[in-house]
Amino acid sequence: AATVFLSITTLDAELARKLEPRASSPRHRLEAVEALAKAGIPVGVMTAPIIPALNDSEIPAILTAAARAGAKSAGYVMLRLPFGLKELFAAWLQEHFPDRKEKVLHRLEELSGGKLYDAAFGKRQTGAGVFAEQIAQLFEVGLKKAGLSQRGVQLSTESFRRPAAPQMSLF
Questions:
Q1: How far apart are CA 74 and CA 111, in angstroms?
Q2: 137 vs 144: CA distance, rounded Å
Q3: What's the pLDDT tens digit per position in 44-57?
Q4: Backbone dihedral region for residue 159 (phi beyond 0: left; psi -120 to 50: alpha; all else: beta)
Q5: CA-to-CA distance for 148 and 139, rounded, in angstroms?
Q6: Whole-number Å distance between alpha carbons of 98 and 140
Q7: Beta strand pairing status for 73-78 and 4-7?
Q8: SS3 of residue 162 by DSSP
Q9: 97 - beta bridge partners?
Q10: In which element (H, E) is residue 38 found?
Q11: Which one, of 8, 136, 127, lies nearest residue 61 by Cα?
């Protein structure tokens, strides 16, 4: 009746420490995928966030590693920078990747119609334009090569039972 998705941003432990300094390492996340799969729990991964010119090239490797660990499905989300996150992210790039800062920011602008972020429904998760199409194609090819599905598993409500007493009786 449930499925679990874990985000895997990168397989590069050094990049992971910079992106998510207090989060589990990529190795530990893959071990969690494996443990869930071995326990019979449907598990998938989110390659998220995808950051152009920083981790987008890792999509196929992430999907392959996830499939090997037992994942059955995967999805992705492009980096979203609403509100004050634009300035924070630009400062983070300057600190950690000054040589790639402009390239990353320009790619994000290409995905968002010239802005660093477009909140429009249907664009905020995947972006728009040629580069967004390239990412989507890279993801689709990676899914097929890894043998993963983008739809996930079919969940069942077979074990669900209506409570004997109405929920309001709890109060």
A1: 21
A2: 11
A3: 999 999 999 999 99
A4: alpha
A5: 11
A6: 31
A7: unpaired
A8: coil
A9: none
A10: helix 26-38
A11: 8
